[in-house]
Amino acid sequence: MQTSPRIKIILVEDNDLIRQITTSMLARFGFEVITLDGPFGFGRALLKERPSLALVDVSMPGLQGDQLVEVTNQQRAGKICPIVLFSDRTEADLSALAKACGADGFICKSHRWPDIARSINKYIGQHTASLR
Fold first, then answer.
1. Where in the chain are the domains?
2. Could you confirm whether domain 7-131 is CATH 3.40.30.10?
3. Per-residue pLDDT reduced to its tens digit, 37-52
4. What is d(CA 66, CA 56) in angstroms, rounded to the nearest whole number?
5. 55 vs 12: CA distance, rounded Å
6. Which of 18, 65, 93, 106 fits a disulfide with 58 by CB distance 3.0 to 4.6 angstroms?
């Protein structure tokens, strides 16, 4: 019996603990998580891994998440996957930041993993529907 492939996500998160917890919890919901500990190499990882979604931490040293989204959108000829900001900032802040930088949306960091998994699936579904 062949199992269906897991949904692949790239997580860009500089905090080791948050990266480990997020990876572990998302794996429990059936996601395959590819991690980057910073923004550098993100474009290459998108092309190599072909994820269904990218979760990008907003506050990172060197290049902030919103800046990474802007640079990525400028360099890509076509959309590989939705890029979603992932932060503990307020919903109002994240909504404004996502619109300003061209992200496909945002997810607030929290301990509500079922809600986070639903949001991820929602963004993937919207992206898939837009390709039809």
1. 7-131
2. no
3. 999 999 999 999 999 9
4. 8
5. 6
6. 65
Task: Measure CA 32 to chain center.
Answer: 12
For 89-129, the pLDDT digits (tens) are 999 999 999 999 999 999 999 999 999 999 999 999 988 87
Is the torsion defined by CA of 49, 67, 63, 91 positive or negative? negative
Strands 105-108 and 83-87: parallel
Structure tokens at 45: 């990882």
Angle of CA points 76, 31, 117, to nearest 5°:
90
Q: DSSP labels for 60-98?
A: -SSS-HHHHHHHHHHH-SS--S-EEEEESS-HHHHHHHH
Residue 47 carries which side chain, given as an amino acid letter?
L
DSSP state of 132: -
CB-CB contact of 57 with 129 (8 Å): no
* pLDDT value of position 61: 86
Pair 96, 89: CB distance under 8 Å: no
As given in the structure block, the two tokens for residue 72 are 């990525």
Specify the pTM.
0.91
